[in-house]
Amino acid sequence: MTDRNLAAGKRVVALYLLLLAAATAVHLIITPFYQPDHDPDFTYWEAYDPFMMAGSLLVLLFAYLWKRRHDAALPEANNWRAYVEVNALFYIGGVQAILLAWSWLMQVFGDPTLTQPVIWLLVDSVGVMLWLAAGRRLWREAASAS
């Protein structure tokens, strides 16, 4: 795969993550205005959850690659900011993906009453920040590679 193709692939993933972050943030904020009395038959989030899970898995994949690249460069590239950035993205992304998977699968296959609204708020809001951070980083990497 050429550098140009790799940069194009990174841009596609970055665009997906950035759009996912924007759509989730907007929908999270406006849901209370049009969702009548927390209607249990309201299925937008159920249809949207697979896209959020895909975004979370993409964040985990790229965060793992960035973490590996950073760890391989130690101790020569002892950059505290980069260390915190790659590790936070990876470990917070892991927690967010686990909570999202548990809540989503419990909603679909288990007992939906066991999924707490506060967990969904945490998963969605942390997801927005993770997708935004990873999308911006991928976009910058693609721009510098082309």
Distance between the termini: 14 Å
Can you tell me the residue ranges where pLDDT is under 50 for at least 5 consecutive residues?
none
> How many structural domains does the protein architecture include?
1
Order of helices and strands: HHHH
Per DSSP E runs of 2 or more residues, the count of β-strands stands at 0
Structural class: mainly alpha
Number of helices: 4
DSSP strand (E) fraction? under 5%
Describe the 3D structure.
- The chain has one domain (3-145).
- It contains four helices and no strands.
- It has helices at 3-34, 44-73, 80-109, 117-145.
Topology:
Elements: H1 3-34, H2 44-73, H3 80-109, H4 117-145
Helix pairs in contact: 1-2, 1-4, 2-3, 2-4, 3-4
Structural features:
146 residues, mainly alpha, 0% strand, single chain, elongated
Quick recap:
The chain has about 150 residues and is an all-alpha fold.
